[in-house]
Amino acid sequence: MVREDGLPTRWDQVQVPAPFSAVFAKAVVMSVAGSGICIPDPGFDIVRYDPKDAPWVYNIDHYTVFEDLRKHPHFDLLIQRYGIAQTIGLRELINTRVFVVGPNRRDNH
After folding, report:
1. Cα separation, 69 vs 47, whole angstroms
2. What distance in Å separates the CA atoms of residue 59 and residue 107, rounded to the nearest whole number?
3. pLDDT over 70 at 19, yes or no
4. For the segment 83-102, what is each residue's pLDDT rounded down to a tens digit?
5. Close Cβ partners of 62 (under 8 Å, ≥ 6 residues apart)
6. Are 75 and 69 within 8 A, CB to CB?
7. In Å, how far are 23, 35, 39, 93, 94 from 77, measured between CA atoms?
8. What's the rounded Cα separation, in Å, for the pair 75 and 70?
9. CA–CA separation, 18 vs 82, rounded Å?
10. How far apart, in Å, are the Cα atoms of 82 and each of 15, 34, 85, 88, 100?
11. Confidence class of residue 107 from pLDDT cuts 50, 70 and 90?
């Protein structure tokens, strides 16, 4: 949700999409922050508290979001390697979906 004043949009509660429900079930989620449209590398971060990960009990999982999968640096290579036909159906799928890749775990995980 992009605000006209450019300030972050805050929600008290966020509906969790099914692929991420395990993240919320296994640890206490402290914060979720996302960015997109306005920046060249959109994505979101989930900050979790998990005492099992001591001494780093606060973990950040970063998910990269591709609003246009064709701009992914490896798109052409993947299409070629796996023999995927660039059909009208594929183009429609890419044009109507946002693709999430991750989590990309950093040193603070």
Report:
1. 26
2. 9
3. yes
4. 999 999 999 998 888 888 88
5. 43, 44, 45, 102, 103, 104, 105, 106
6. yes
7. 31, 27, 25, 18, 16
8. 6
9. 27
10. 34, 31, 9, 18, 20
11. low
> Residue 43 is encoded by which pair of tokens?
């994505």
CA separation (Å) from 17 to 22, 66, 74, 106? 10, 17, 26, 23
Q: Which residue has the tokens 């508290």?
A: 49
Task: Report the predicted TM-score, pTM, of the whole model to 2 decimal places.
Answer: 0.66
Taking the CA of residue 85 as centre, how many other CA atoms within 13 Å lie in the half-sphere pointing to its CB? 3
Label each residue of the chain as H, E or C. Answer: CCCCCCCCCCCCCCCCCHHHHHHHHHCEEEEEEEECCCCCCCEEEEEEECHHHCCCCEEEEEEEEECCHHHCCCHHHHHHHCCCCCCHHHHHHHHHCCEEEEEEECCCC
